[in-house]
Amino acid sequence: MDIASMVDRRPLVIFSKSSCAMCHSIESLMRQFGANLTVYELDQIGNGRHVEATLLQMGCRPSVPAVFIGQRFVGGADAVMSLHLQGKLVPMLIAAGAIFMWHRS
Predict the structure, then answer these.
(1) pTM greater than 0.85 (yes/no)
(2) Which keywords accompany this UniProt record (predicted)?
(3) Which helix or strand (DSSP H or E) is residue 23 part of?
């Protein structure tokens, strides 16, 4: 399975590793928004090494977390946090259908 088919028709996909603290932080942030997300733990799936190599070729350094919103690669933890701090992350998630309503607390 290639990356395109793994993110197809999924509003939010995070490629992660079970031992990656930053990956868990990004997942937690998305869950706080109530996002509909799909997480692939590369160290727990059969083609994980191949997927990781492809992510590195795409310029994701480090390879995880790698975040796709609306089938578009947005980057790793730094890019996601930057979008969040700029107030752009939630609108992207809404546009992709990953979250439907957002009420700031």
Answers:
(1) yes
(2) Cytoplasm, Redox-active center
(3) helix 21-32
